[in-house]
Each structure stands twice: as C-alpha cells, then as structure tokens.
Amino acid sequence: MSDSVTRSKSSPKTKSSSRELEKASEAPSQMAEIAGDQILSVAFVVSQKGKAQMTVDSRIADLDLAVLGPVIRSDADFKEGEKEPNKPEQDASGKIDKKIKRDDPEFKKLKKNMNSKIVFKDEEGTGADRMMSKSLSDKLDDLANLVANEWSGTKLRVTEAWDEDNEHAGGSLHYEGRAADLTTSPIDGGKLGRLCRLAVNAGFDWVYFEDSKHIHVSVKK
C-alpha cells in the first residue's frame, strides 16, 4: 500500500469556495481505521496559492478511536515484507521477561494446543510447537477457523511456536510461547499474503509477512 497519495483541485475563485477552504484549514485532518491497530491519516492541506490538496499520510497506530468518525477497513492481502501494525514487534507485542524452560514455573502456564484443524510441524519431535501462551493458542484457534472457511481442504500449519532450543534471536517472543511461524497445509506460498490478512482479522497483535516461505505472528502477554 502506498504511504501517500496526493490529489489536487484547481484554485477556487469564488468567495464561497474561499470560505470552504478556510473551514478546511481550520479542521486539518480526519482519521480512518484500516484494520486493527493500523490507521490511515487523511489530512487536508491548503497551500498558500489557494490550492486544496488531500494528502494520505503513512499509517500510524495507538490513536484514540473514540475521536474517529466512520471507519474504513482494509481487506487487502499483504505483500512480502509488510507488517501490521507497521512498527517493531516488541512495540506491538511487548518484550520477553525470560526464556522459558521446561523446568521453569512459567512452563506450567503454557497451553498445549490440540486443535485438529491445525497441523503442527513438530520437527523436533518433542511437541514443543504445540506449547504456547493461552492468548496465542486462542488466536490460532480463531485463525484456523478462518482458514477453513477461506479455502476448502486447507488447514493452518504451525512450523514453530515455543522455542526451547535457542533457534531464534535473543529477545524472540518464541521463547515465551507468544509467537508462531505459520503456513498453510498443503503448503502454498501463494496463500501467505491472504493468510496474513486473516491473521489480522483473528486478532493477533503483530502480523509479519516475513518471507516467501512463512508468516510470523505474535501476541501480548
């Protein structure tokens, strides 16, 4: 999605049009929600030459939605490299407190997801990919339903959730079971952009079309 779009109109010449421009300059912006935390800022700018311009600013987050009028939701598929909200994962889902190990008290708080609508890769053979926070598990269950409704004969596939083998960067949310790497089953890279949008709709706090092989999602504590 383009960060900015500019439209211009010819300079108004009537007094009535001038008054309308004055009103526009007094109320310089309107906001519209795109999806979840993603916001599109639409600003009306009046130049010194009297030309009215509408500028669509880059997407921003954490606005008070109570001040917004009618909202517009995007249903567009993601492009590779796109994230929502458009900010670092730790800003959206928070930092980890520690790397959870099996003998830690925190491990007992993790949930084992046994949803039959989800395929777990479990390449380690330990069941680690089924272990996750309750919040992540609930969101994956919701996404699994959306995937089943979107594509007949297709399931959500989890390739990584809780990590106990130090396979990720030091601050990865995988270590607390708050992040998951996802594809579809059967594997189809052409579905990943749409899978990202479905993940946003399922309520994940951060969704990232990481590369051509998988998407990454995470949740707050």
Q: What does this protein structure show overall?
A:
The protein is α+β, with helices and mostly antiparallel strands and 221 residues long. Helix content is 20%, strand content 26%. The protein contains four helices and twelve strands. The protein has a six-stranded mixed β-sheet. Strands 1-4-3-2 form a four-stranded antiparallel β-sheet. It has a two-stranded antiparallel ribbon with strand order 6-8. A hairpin with a 5-residue loop joins β3 (38-46) and β4. α3 (134-150) crosses α4 (192-202). The relative contact order is 0.15. The model is unreliable at 1-18 and 23-73 (pLDDT under 50).
Assembly state (oligomeric):
single chain
Low-confidence stretches: 1-18, 23-73
Helical content class: 10-25%
Quick one: how many beta strands?
12
Strand content: 25-35%
Q: Sketch the topology as an H/E string, one letter per element.
A: EHEEEEHEEEHEEHEE
Output the keywords.
single chain, 221 residues, alpha+beta, 4-stranded antiparallel sheet, 20% helix, globular, disordered N terminus
In short:
With 221 residues, the protein is an alpha+beta fold. The chain has a six-stranded mixed sheet with strand order 5-11-12-10-9-7. A four-stranded antiparallel sheet has the order 1-4-3-2. Strands 6-8 form a two-stranded antiparallel ribbon.
Task: Outline the secondary-structure elements.
Blueprint: E1 6-8, H1 15-26, E2 29-35, E3 38-46, E4 52-56, E5 83-84, H2 89-93, E6 111-112, E7 118-120, E8 131-132, H3 134-150, E9 155-160, E10 179-185, H4 192-202, E11 206-211, E12 214-218
Parallel strand pairs: 7-9
Antiparallel strand pairs: 1-4, 2-3, 3-4, 5-11, 6-8, 9-10, 10-12, 11-12
Helix pairs in contact: 3-4
